[in-house]
Amino acid sequence: MLRNGVTRSWTRSLLRSPTVSSRHTSTIGALHARLQAHTAHSQLRRPSSLAINPYKQSSTALQRYASTHPGTPFDHIDKKHEKDVAKTAIEPHPEEVSTLSSVRQVMHEEGVEDKERDVDMLAGVKSDLKMIGETFSMKEVPREALVLGMAGFLPYLATSLSTVYLAWDINHAALTGSGFLLSGQTAELLLHIIEPLQIAYGAVILSFLGAIHWGLEFAKYGGKHGYPRYAIGVVAPAIAWPTTLLPVEYALIAQFLAFNYLYFADARATRRGWAPHWYTTYRFALTFIVGASIVISLIGRGQIADKINRLPGPADRIKALRDSQMESLEAEEKERRSKLVSQEDDEDAE
């Protein structure tokens, strides 16, 4: 204990003396220099992640300083204005108090009058109709072509409407015993007259639409294209006229497909520049009228399929002609054989 106490006191006395303190300071400086050199040497050999990072003040300390240091602009309180506001008396307005006065509006700003707008419930439908009208507008179609084209399709539409009315009259006669305007037999006879007219007129229209491409080729509209454009005019009547030999239902369905095929061919030709740019819209309107007419005719015939006798068509007539020719040939053959037999009998008798 004594040794330790003496040692401590002697060490303190040495440290208090100026000579020892200077030597001690120089020794500590030398040790500090050697430590720095050793640290720098170790940083060269070790990865940078193990190096001692310098101390940085955290953002929390900066925020604490900024909020507690006097004179900062972060939370400046205007005490004079607060005193003036405290002295102001609140004016009561009982007339403004209601069940909704304490409700805060969400859809619009406070203090701004919200005028209710008259919402058009059909705005979406009107927009769609306007878009359709602009898409299929025929303002650029020449007036002559538009008027004559629509007039040319009126007979086709008339035959379809007539088919529907006659079918209704036939059904009315079957249910009540008498037709509304015509008798059942008269309506059926008229129906058998109208059906071939509609099919033949459809074949004429298809042939005419195909012939338009021949005229465009003659005029060299969009250049000279030769056989590809002539082929459209050839295929149209080649498909149209054989439909006149089919039964009514099959003929109408075949012509419906032919009209749609020719529309797509015309649209393709317009896209290639072989026809005017308005021709596709024009053809769409005409094809829509024809397609609707064919559908109406098929619906009308479907209502009376089991109430009328099927009118013999061209194919039936050809078959009947062939059968009659075969019967005549057989009759001629029998007569010739009978003559031969009679001649042989006469010769034997002699």
In percent, how much strand structure appears in the residues?
A: under 5%
Oligomer: single chain
Biggest sheet record: none
Q: Give helix % range.
A: 55-70%
Unreliable segments of 5+ consecutive residues: 1-11, 14-25, 41-57
Taking Cα atoms only, what radius of gyration do you get, to the nearest Å?
Answer: 54 Å
Order of helices and strands: HHHHHHHHHHH
Q: Total number of helical segments?
A: 11
Described by the principal axes of the CA atoms, the overall outline is: elongated
Determine the mean pLDDT: 76
**First and last CA, distance:** 187 Å
Total strand segments: 0
Counting helices, strands and paired strands, the structural category is mainly alpha
Task: Describe what this molecule looks like in 3D.
This protein has helices at residues 2-16, 18-45, 59-68, 79-87, 123-135, 143-176, 184-218, 227-240, 248-271, 279-302, 314-349. The chain has 350 residues and is an all-alpha fold. Helix 6 packs parallel to helix 10 (279-302). 15% of the residues are buried.
